[in-house]
């Protein structure tokens, strides 16, 4: 019988963006088996209402629990900002680690006193982000910038096309004009656009991706609950599902992770 510590960890996002978190978890916890769900058939969450996001998140977590996961990582800032408290209440016995925009470290490190947060429309409007700004943004000007279209660029694996560069510039330039010197990647899709963002923003711009902090927090939670898998017999496997077209998901996920993967079809909610 498999021990609790050897059970897999579930990771999910509205699409492929959460792979930016998955790769940090893999670096931090190479012994852990990882199950990833890309809800690409319902992406982007940033344009959906709260009830819809709650329903999809509950369905995916139930699916992951049916696969035997010991913990779940919410690799979607929109889910965290809107429904994380509901999910933690509904799945009270399940360790849930959630990503959120790195407003605190950005506020601590800014030199100009102006921080830009790049996120989806729903994350920008979420109570979770408002709470972070209230808690950690005192004495700092925090500019919240919705970036419609960025998620779709990553979902299509159009990371540096002329159209993508123009779309990134459209939303980064206003923050530069207001003297922002620190940018927070408030959507897990956006790290895949970080090279374009950095090229447009210049070498002095600090760009903060909270994915590594999520991986460290997950490691801490697992250790505290005796669920850390200590077996060091090589790198553990990963398994992938998508609610979108599996062939497209397989191609894009393989490209983003830089190695071939197999992607299964996520069952339709009954």
- Structural category: alpha/beta
Number of strands: 10
Count of domains: 2
| Sheet with the most strands, sense and barrel status | 6 strands, parallel
Query: Which architecture of the largest domain does the CATH hierarchy give at level 2?
Result: 3-Layer(aba) Sandwich
Distance between the termini: 30 Å
The share of residues in extended strands comes to 15-25%
What is the C-level CATH assignment of the largest domain?
Alpha Beta
Mean pLDDT metric: 96
Radius of gyration: 18 Å
Low-confidence blocks of residues:
none
Helix content: 40-55%
- Element-by-element helix/strand order: EHEHEHEHEHHEHHEHEHEHE
Q: Assign the CATH topology of the largest domain.
A: Rossmann fold
Categorize the overall geometry.
globular
Any key phrases for this structure?
270 residues; alpha/beta; Rossmann fold; 2 domains; four-stranded parallel sheet; 11 helices; 44% helix; 16% strand; globular
